[in-house]
Amino acid sequence: MSALSKRKVMTLGIQHLLAMYAGAIAVPLIVGGALNLNETQMAYLVAADLFTCGLATILQVMGTRFFGSGLPVILGCTFTAVGPIITIASTSNLATAYGAIILSGLFVVLAAPLYGKMLKFFPTIVTGSVVTIIGLSLIPVAMNNAAGGQGSPDFGAPRNLLLALITLVVILAVSRFAKGFVKAISVLVGLVVGTVVGYFMDMVHFGAVSDAAVVSVAKPFYFGAPEFAITAVITMIIVNIVSMVESTGVYFAVGRATEQKVEQKQIVNGLRSEGLAIMLGGVFNAFPYTAFSQNVGLITLTKVKTRDVIFAAGGFMVLLGLLPKLAALTTVIPSAVLGGAMIVMFGSVAVSGISILSEVDLRKDNNLLIVAASVAVGLGSATVPAMFDQLPDFAKMLLQNGIVSGSITAIALNLLLSKKAQASADAERPQAA
């Protein structure tokens, strides 16, 4: 893959960008809307988020001595932070929310080495269950988009389902019959064809492009100097602990997709990088960042594993953050088209987890019970999060995230039910480089 030309690297980078774009801009749109920000502030929030996403991704992929996993991982804003940021900003102000984000990022940087020592609790049966949960918990997101986007007035309309089906069929056909580079960009081909078909179905509109500013530069402390409140800081620390567990699962999934063993040092450095990215998000008044699982499925599907492609994707995000009009152009892709592409990408993540579990003998040491319970709990939490609504806020934050609840269940049951759990954990513990 190192022989890829610059043009191919750029094209593959755009494919990764489009795969995660909807998730990247959803958080600023939701938070900005809930806080009644004006159009200028909303535009800044989206631009700053994309700019910081790009910087965070580049930092993650570089892999220096202390920062960056060196894995082809894309960072995006975590949905876990949406509720807490809205709550903190509503009860105090945005400056307090950003102060909490900065200090919580510092916590992640400092806590990463200690967290790395806990990786002995992630043997194959746990990582396989977690990666499977990641894929399965994302599938409802894909189906909601395929139907037109949750809450849209035409949700489930036949034209949405048809457009999602066309996109999916194009991706599958290109993956099956094309060769070489064209096969590697099957998702991008599907997105382009789906958008063109959507245009002729009057589902593509360019109003947002004409309204967007030409240039925007992220400014430190756009919403004011950071303020600090202990409750807000603790809340954001809990959010980022959740993200650390989620990111660990993504690192293992990427390791599987790229056919390499993920070492303890890579995870520690990756989490340090995320902590630095979170602090950067606080400074530029963006958001906390975590490893995005959307792109794992793309790596699994295309078999393109080079970090250069993710560097390119990060560079494009920085560019879009500086050029909002160009960023708005990517928003014309209909939700149904994105949903059709997500079906195969997220399904690929789930299959990757099942592949990991195929290395586990499910007839021994209650392994079947461990996998069954953890996957059921994780998927249940992700699809029915309201079941935890009556619990305290910190418990809701943990348990409503299917990846976290499934991981906790898998770790606990592995320790309690497997007779050889400790021996297995010691044998598979990632070694520091």
Could you outline the blueprint of secondary structure elements for this entry?
Layout: H1 6-34, H2 39-62, E1 75-77, H3 82-91, H4 94-116, H5 124-146, H6 158-177, H7 180-184, H8 186-200, H9 207-211, H10 230-257, H11 264-283, E2 289-291, H12 294-302, H13 307-322, H14 324-329, H15 335-357, H16 367-383, H17 393-399, H18 402-417, H19 421-428
Antiparallel strand pairs: 1-2
Helix pairs in contact: 1-2, 1-3, 1-13, 2-11, 2-13, 3-4, 4-10, 4-11, 5-10, 5-15, 5-16, 5-18, 6-8, 6-15, 10-12, 12-15, 16-18
Describe the structure.
This protein has 433 residues and is an all-alpha fold. Helix content is 70%, strand content 1%. It is built from 19 helices and 2 strands. It has a two-stranded antiparallel sheet with strand order 1-2. α1 packs across α13 and α4 runs antiparallel to α11. The mean pLDDT is 85.
SSE series: HHEHHHHHHHHHEHHHHHHHH
- Low-confidence runs of at least 5 consecutive residues: none
Which percent range fits the helix content? over 70%
Shape, please?
Answer: globular
SS elements, strand count: 2
> What is the count of DSSP helices, taking H or I runs of 4+ residues?
19
Task: Looking at this protein, list some descriptive labels.
single chain, 433 residues, mainly alpha, two-stranded antiparallel sheet, 1% strand, globular
